[in-house]
Amino acid sequence: MTTKTGPPTVHTAQAAVVGAGPAGLAAALELARGGLDVLLLDEQPEPGGQYYRRPGPEVLRTAGDHRPEGANLISRVRESGVRLLTGHTVWGVDDDRRTLLAVDPDGTPVQVRADWIVAATGAYERSVPFPGWQLPGVVTPGLAQHMSAEGVRLGRRTVVAGSGPFLLPVACALLERGVRVVAVAEAGRPYAPGVAALGALRFPSRLVELASYFARLTRHGVRVHQDTVVAEAHGGDHVESATLVRFSDPGRVVARHEVDVLCVGYGFRPQSDLPQLFGCSMERDPVTGDTVPRLTPVGRSSVPHVYVVGEAAGVAGAPTAVARGRAAALDILAGCGRVPDHRTRRAAAVRMASLTRFTRLTSALYPSPADLVTALTRELPGHTLVCRCECVTADTLREAASAPGGSDVPAIKGDTRAGMGLCQARECGPALEALRTGGAGTGTVPARVPLRPLPVTAVLGFSDSSREDS
Amino acid sequence: MNTFDAVVIGAGVLGAATAFELARTGMSVLVLERGAPNREGSGTTAGNLHIQAVHTRRPGQEVPLDSEGLLPAQKAADTLWAEAEHRLEADLEVRRNGGFMVAETPEQREELYTKHVWEQRAGLNTELLDGDTARAALPLLGPTVTAATWCPHDGYANPLKAAPAYLAAANRLGTRIKAFTPVTGLERRGSGWRVYTPDGHHDAPVVINTAGPWISEVCALAGVDLRMAPVAIQMHVTARERPVLHHLVQHIGEGLSVKQVTAGNLLVGGGWPALGMNLQGRSTASVESLAGNMAQATRVLPFLAGLRLLRMWAGPLAATPDEMPVIGPVPGQAGLYVAGGTYAFTFAPLWGETLSRMVRGEPTRIDVSSFAPDRLTATCGSTDRTTSAHTEKGTAPC
Question: Where are the domains of chain A?
Fold first, then answer.
């Protein structure tokens, strides 16, 4: 086996945008329109991110494009002169704290040097462990939607559970593929008419959308349980049934359903590792419990040339992601003396403000993720596998958290190996943080390098010889 | 309770082992730790048990260490690691499967021959192999390896388990452990010491400073200038693999150590310097060191190039100007002891026992007079602090 790799490919640009989802596409387009030389990197083979993920040709032919605005945005980006580098995984930041390190689809190391960095790295799905979540057949809503969009029927009977507005379209997508959705379980009570819900009246198009989801669910006889969560998935080598309980009274069983697919997720959380590697100042969002970068309203971080946009800046949905991408781009253009006209900037600011109001109203309808994770984690039976990669149970973690003398999140990880597996705590991170009930020390799982497991050969090109040339 | 027989400062593996050994003799012990136990050098180290003579220089190191001078301590440490799990009633994943020290260039081969002579003189069982014989014994070795020494005693213990097991055993014997409690003052009181923390003070006739990177800071609280410097080095780990490498592999001329840990991950280190030292938070690992370390690792063990890198991290340690360990009573400060420096993980069981015997006035297992702190101390103000001259130095993985 050869251990030689070529020297890194070096790309330079005025601006580098990481992530070609709605926010990254919008930012790249605006920057290119402003006359900057722009590189747009994405780890996927095609641009679009999760939200504007392009369906396969088969699906396009039979079902059409469910989000034509995505195709439109992508084609405008392609025409704008943006250099698009798909299949490029950004895995770190070089010692100069400026150069992006990536690997191309052939495994060749790549360096990207740019005056401005826009991190549009999107979000992870927010999972909360429960007994049986390691069983085959237990999936996340994001996976269920993606597979359904690709025309895959995930199973015969399912329950869609968790919290947040995303559960309804996912349930509808599963129905469309012929999966029998026995129930939707929502941890909160967002669909009870109340003061908070009335705010949605100011966004009538969203009310129409919501009503159409409910109409479809009702037509198929799907029961929507509120204040309900999955307490356990049962099964041998595959999920066979799920027990649903009251979120506010976990002792009370709501239902037990036979399923061959169980779809559970609690929305999304920002993927903010890259800003951390740039040294951006971070803070804990008290509502979500997530570690997020400290940003100005236009997405500028504490490191002046680094902007964070889209879901990576705080989960708020695709329209907000697009608006954030544009706002950051306009600010960068202003920063390099290419002042966009006043009306463009004003329009962007107004749009952002309106979307921010909508996001606030929506999130007020659902329980705060921080409270949800804390409450659900507290109830976990001791035998629950919290870290699926390294098979660490809740009992083991609780014991580590109460070590003589005190403990913190890195110490709990070290003691138990939780979060040290392939996913590097991307799945169990929030639960790990919640299982520690306070005290001094580090309360969060820090960003790791590489950001994704990386072929060893992809770093060899960065050793001495190639460095001296650069 | 505010009075103890001994206060140990630092809940890394050295502090933990010392607390355990003191508690075993019936002493009341308090361990004070500024952060979480085992979170700094002891929890971020490679966990190698270095029994054959070590390479003398690593990337960036200015002074070669006295490799021969360490051999008696390594031999003694081997004996103590062999019984550590039994004494602690805990699984530390101690594996003493032996290890190779490889050479590539003619100069490195010469070093290997010299080292082998020292080992024979010290009565340590090692074997000298040429490149082909070494490859026959370990087919994973690459074609650039021209010679190797084999030592059946080299091994590994899980650094994430060692200090916690020592602390738990000490705790069972009545030792009190206070984490997130930094020491803010050290004051002579009669024949003993008063140790100040933000939560109040504690009195003890004996204070043991095993504060790792903070060892000099803690000494300075007692008015002692200990010439040691914090240094951050880094480690790299691959995703899990089926068991492929059963031995420790090191390099005689360059900083390199590779082994497969019990969980299946391949751990690559060798004391490459991190990007910077951050004593307030986590130090940042350097991409240049990552690339350098992985380049030599894949040259010596080409199969590594087919694996996936999972994570890298940096950890601190405290280096002495001569790269040798430090252990013993601080001159002129009755009851104050220090221990730290080179290969602290390998030596932890030995230094714990040694300190405990010193405190009780008993003879130590080996002569440690050449590691005494007097070579590094002066009272504050009487000499220039020279620690800053050493901060750039890479040093040994423990």
Answer: 9-124+269-365, 129-265, 380-435
The token pair that represents A104 in the structure block: 């191309």
The Cα B181–Cα B7 span in angstroms is 13
- What is the model's pTM? 0.91
For residue B215, give the nearest of B376, B107, B58, B27 by alpha carbon: B376
CA distance A44 to A40: 12
How do beta strands A9-18 and A109-119 pair? parallel
- Which of the residues A1, A463, A468, A470 would you substitute to probe the B interface, choosing the one with the greatest number of B C-beta atoms within 10 Å? A463
A129-265 falls under which CATH superfamily?
FAD/NAD(P)-binding domain (3.50.50.60)
Question: Looking at the domain that runs over A380-435, which CATH code has it been given?
Answer: 1.10.10
- pLDDT tens, residue by residue, A407-440: 888 888 888 999 999 989 989 999 998 888 777 7
User: Per-residue pLDDT for A62 more than 50?
Assistant: yes
The structure tokens listed for A151 are 């025309």
Query: Which residues, listed in sequence order, are joined to residue A83 by a DSSP beta bridge?
Result: A39
Q: With contacts defined as CB-CB under 8 Å, which chain A residues touch B142?
A: 3
Sheet of B206-209: strand order equals B176-178, B29-32, B6-9, B206-209, B336-340, B326-329
Q: Which amino acid is present at A318?
A: A
Distance CA B55, CA B108 (A): 10
A391 contacts chain B (CB < 8 A):
no
For residue A332 the two structure tokens come to 């960068």
Weakly modelled stretches of chain B, pLDDT under 70:
1, 58, 379-398
Q: Give residue-wise pLDDT tens across range A179-221.
A: 999 999 999 998 876 545 555 556 667 777 888 898 999 999 9
